[in-house]
Amino acid sequence: MATESSNVKYEEEFITNSKGKKLFTCRWLPTDCEPKALVFLNHGYAMECSVSMKGAAMRLVKAGFGVYGIDNQGHGKSEGIQGFISRFDDLVDDSSHYFTSVCERKENKNKLRILLGESMGGAMVLQLHLKKPDFWDGGVLVAPMCKIADNMRPSQMMISVLTQLRKLIPTWKIVPGDDIIELAFRDPNIRQEIRENSLCYKGRVRLQTAMELFTVTTNIEKKLKDVTIPFLIVHGEDDKVTDPMTSKLLYENASSTDKAFKLYPGMWHALTYGEFPENTDTVFVDIISWINERIARGNSRLEREQNSKKNELHSTDKKDDN
């Protein structure tokens, strides 16, 4: 499906992953200019791209970027039990395969590649970077799920019990916890929109899903120093879902030489879709400015790739001369 309005072309497509599951993808492209960079959206847990991240995509495409998104397995319009994550690594593989295929199209080869993820999508951005450290040019981490906030985290005793139970009843919705919608989305109107959006999962966290999210955050905590990608972290100071102090730890411990951390007083968890409009405006001014600054600095990854090819050709010519 393709639609076009206000100098924006929107398209949807289903792809099939390595395990035969159909996954929903979507893209927003400017029609009045060539995209100056590519931005890849990674949605949060229980969310999706085409509705709840549409506002973010429209802001980015109107700033001149090509924007691509994918609904993870069990999320949005993609196949799978709603809200169920069997292996987080499978989601990483799906996103990596799709995003990489977009980047390698002839028309996109010279464009900057920026990952943007909110909450669980922030964890996805970090995992995608760690999977292919030299492939991505930057990451925007919106309240990233590097660690689950203490009030959302099961006790150690509960974790032990859940670890045993997930072998028997992995899809059961039995993990206790607060209402994430009430904690994450500050604007009551958006809370209602989420509750009415059938593409968003609203039940209790499924057993295996909870354990996978716990595992991935635990692993990320151990690998903060391995992060080398240029990144911007934006986080609400009053976030009750993911811990702003863990974002600060990521900022302080990451090996990246190009990094920034912005903490917004009074703001909650869902910054791109959940805050009051004036606050969302502030966040996107910072995000778009940061991406534009990276573009202005030039594409160092592309320069490295071109120099590598030149060196390979030079080496081949020397061998031929001998």
Automatic annotation (TrEMBL):
<dbReference type="GO" id="GO:0016787">
    <property type="term" value="F:hydrolase activity"/>
</dbReference>
<dbReference type="Pfam" id="PF12146">
    <property type="entry name" value="Hydrolase_4"/>
</dbReference>
<feature type="region of interest" description="Disordered">
    <location>
        <begin position="302"/>
        <end position="322"/>
    </location>
</feature>
<dbReference type="InterPro" id="IPR051044">
    <property type="entry name" value="MAG_DAG_Lipase"/>
</dbReference>
<dbReference type="InterPro" id="IPR000073">
    <property type="entry name" value="AB_hydrolase_1"/>
</dbReference>
<protein>
    <recommendedName>
        <fullName>Serine aminopeptidase S33 domain-containing protein</fullName>
    </recommendedName>
</protein>
<dbReference type="InterPro" id="IPR029058">
    <property type="entry name" value="AB_hydrolase_fold"/>
</dbReference>
<feature type="domain" description="Serine aminopeptidase S33">
    <location>
        <begin position="34"/>
        <end position="272"/>
    </location>
</feature>
<dbReference type="InterPro" id="IPR022742">
    <property type="entry name" value="Hydrolase_4"/>
</dbReference>
